[in-house]
């Protein structure tokens, strides 16, 4: 088995962490693609002669046309947001022994039932891999975030509708799910503890492939910590969250391979969690600005309970109303209501404003002609 195949296997097994919040594919930026092309070209032509290099130079007419197009580009053209614009990285991911010890002490194991505590101890006593994913702060409505964390199958269904992933997930019990990555990776998830700020998920996964003689199994314990930050009247709400992952491989061979390929797997996991955070932000923004689009997506949900559709629409309506209230508070109505006009009384000499001393105010009868 090649290192690439083993990397793919480890990635598919550990991708169960992403099903809590899961992963999406973000289109590679144009600048990155251009950099890759430039690197390839530079590597293929290290010794171009001057006559050959001249063929790559722009002619004066071409250069003028390029400059003209750049000058005529609309000034209001939207800039593609970068990762730094969408999320804030508080802490980087870590797999050190000190970090593992710290996060082990933070696990609220005393809040678990005896059966769930035994299942958690089974993973923790035979750890093969540990990873604390990056701690990220992202602008997202608290109602939308809580809904997606409580119902990850809705997130997976939205991905399939948007053609972002073929991942499938079904709710099989009040706090249990089945998952299928579509490539031979299947598994189960059980939420064994959940509060507004803490969630513990127990995952079991199996990878089957014609390339390997026996299926590869793994168990993982995922600990999600969330902090909620209120944006007030003029800013959006935000959350800061982090997942710590404890994985156990029954096979020593797979465990050794996982440790060797940990630098690659860690990069994949960190990137997936960032993309999950971006997805949360974008869905919250869609609910606030394009509730009609969210309604159409809700009508196409597959693989979820029927109650999830009206629940998603209710959350979208709440996020939209919160956005409108914040917008009205930030941009008050410039048109002031009309003020009552004080007319000159017909019975006295009072006027609504002070007049010059040499001006005499007289009452005018309707029967009289002012001319």
Main beta sheet strand tally, sense and closure? 9 strands, antiparallel
Query: What is the β-strand count?
Result: 9
Mean pLDDT: 78
Q: State Rg.
A: 31 Å
Distance between the termini: 107 Å
Shape: elongated
User: Can you count the helices?
Assistant: 14
Topology (elements, then pairings):
Elements (H helix, E strand, L loop, with lengths): L2 H12 L3 H4 L8 H15 L5 H5 L5 H12 L11 H4 E5 L5 H10 L7 H11 L4 E4 L2 E5 L2 H9 L1 H10 L6 E6 L2 E5 L4 E10 L3 E10 L8 E14 L8 E11 L3 H9 L1 H28 L1 H8 L9 H23 L41
Antiparallel strand pairs: 1-3, 2-9, 3-9, 4-5, 5-6, 6-7, 7-8, 8-9
Helix pairs in contact: 1-12, 9-10, 12-13, 12-14, 13-14
Question: What do these coordinates show?
Answer:
The chain has helices at 3-14, 18-21, 30-44, 50-54, 60-71, 83-86, 97-106, 114-124, 142-150, 152-161, 252-260, 262-289, 291-298, 308-330, and strands at residues 87-91, 129-132, 135-139, 168-173, 176-180, 185-194, 198-207, 216-229, 238-248. The chain is of the alpha+beta class and 371 residues long. Strands 1, 2, 3, 4, 5, 6, 7, 8 and 9 form a nine-stranded antiparallel sheet that branches. α9 (142-150) crosses α10 (152-161), α12 crosses α13 and α13 (291-298) runs antiparallel to α14 (308-330). The protein is elongated.
